[in-house]
Amino acid sequence: QKPTVESGTEIRREWFEFVPQLPDGVSEQCRVIDTAWTLKKTSDFFATIGSALHGGWLYLIDPYRARLEMPDAVTWIENEKKLKPRVRFGMAKAAGETISKQFLTRLGIPYEDLAAERTDLRTRLVPFISFASRGLIKLVCSADEYAKWQSDKTIPSRWQQFLNEAAAFPHNQQTHDDLLAVCAGLTQM
User: Fold this and answer.
1) Helix, strand, or coil (residue 118)
2) Is the pLDDT at 4 greater than 60, yes or no?
3) Which of 15, 68, 86, 185 could form a disulfide linkage to 46, CB 3.0–4.6 angstroms apart?
4) Residues 172, 119, 55, CA angle at the centre, nearest 5°?
């Protein structure tokens, strides 16, 4: 019987370190958003991760992945921008993003165009995998989640889906890689 998810060979869970907060004086600097929007069970997810670069480490912040319709995706972005006005938003050049960008422009929400996704994800992830394999990526969680991780190695729930995607990469066709695609954009920004 074939497994539903192939075991990945390129990204290892142990490359990532959990931290209870960003270093003092550092704030989220950029956030990449993939606005794949639909409620269909087979479609890609709306996905986003924030980041900060400090002292040679890349800190990943607040991953989010959900099935959203386009108005809800735009509202999510609008609310996030209000909460974090200094954060630079990046979006890939893709079909779903084009429509979302039109709405964001009308709302006056700035974003940066990332390179079009003309190459496969494996190629786009080379810089991210390079950072990760050298232990240079830290996953920010809450103090409580960090304490739980320290005591019994319970993975913070906010990072579970990301780590599942990473550990399974490269994926089979039934597996989503939305959060990893966002990480490819983060290294581009």
Assistant:
1) coil
2) no
3) 68
4) 95
